[in-house]
Amino acid sequence: MKNIWMIAQAENETAPVVIAAEPIDAAAEAQTAQADPNSGPQTPAKKQSPYTQFIFIGLIFVMLYFVMFRGPKKKQQKQKQMMSSLKKNDRVQTIGGIMGTIIDVADNEITLKIDESNNTKMKIVSNAIARVIEQ
Questions:
Q1: Is this model's pTM higher than 0.85 or not?
Q2: Which of 17, 82, 91, 121 gives the lowest tally of CB atoms within 10 Å of its CB?
């Protein structure tokens, strides 16, 4: 069984004086807890604008847009621009690491000359070009 001790201090005395000790039961404790849920020490709450959370969430969505959508889109545009600028006699590297010189450019097909001595040629899809090698 629990006891509640009530302590009070008089204005002119330095030591606290015990007023009373009362035994309590669980039902009375539950009623007390329900009556005053904020019985602990309270700190003053900061006054925030109700829009600060919405602004924060909005900033997160803007960052996600740039990371997830804008970066890959710029990369695709750069790849598309490179594909449209391919021409005969450009040195290129494929995504598989094969290096060659462009002999012919069709709509979706590119003919590469791989070996000069054996006149080895290869036809690849234009999307397989990784980069143009600068000379």
A1: no
A2: 17
